[in-house]
Write a structure and sequence with these properties.
It is a single chain. The chain is mostly helical. It starts with a helix and ends in a 5-residue tail after the last helix. The protein has seven helices and three strands. Strands 1-3-2 form a three-stranded antiparallel beta sheet.
Amino acid sequence: MGMAIIIQTGIGITGNSSLLFPFIYSLFRKRRMRPVEQMIHHLALANALWIICGGIPQAMADFGLQYLLDDIGCKFVFYFYRVAWGNSLSTICLLGGFQAISINPTNSRWVDLKFKALKHVNSTCLLSWMFHLVVNIIVPMKVAGQTRSRNITVHSHFSYCSRLFLNTITESVFSFIFSSVDVICLGFMIWASGTMLFFLHRHKLQVQYIRSTGQSPQTSPETRVKKSILTLVSTFVLFYSLSAAFETYVFRVNDPQS
């Protein structure tokens, strides 16, 4: 299991680093990046941080190093793991919203919105980082090292850290906040995808009369793009939902009170 996690972590870090290196290079060269490039670089940074904080400690624990992290280390790792998790989802949603705005240049209201989006892409991504840094501020209070957790109330045991139980009200409030953020982001992504599908369908109807009558509607560029959007969004929502469900299941299975 440890080798499998190390291989997955190595592949993930390598892939995201290949996206971050051009960003670092462009900073030194002071090259102006396109809005999509900026969002992809923020997404790659969030993914790399997520993989490092989640994969490396788990792999070390599977090799028998259960006490690799002390109390401060557990708080640090879990805090940035949750920050990276949330910011990765938010950045993907922002990317979907930007693409939805970009493909509709006909309406003057959308043109103004597109112009504003182009100017504030990087600041919006930075605000997303700030938001998740603040929202997840409670995470360090809910995590402790294995040695410290022996003398306090423990809610769940992991391979290298322990999750603490604060109180019912606090747990319920923050569970509601975290769940609401995820639901809002997924809902926004579905809305952005639906908007793109609507724009593509309308564009297909507008240009249909100038295309050859012998061309099959299923082979039109709009149809191919719509299939790609549906496939990508459905796959992402499915795997993200499975990941969230699996994480909830792990918390419940490792709960000594259940």
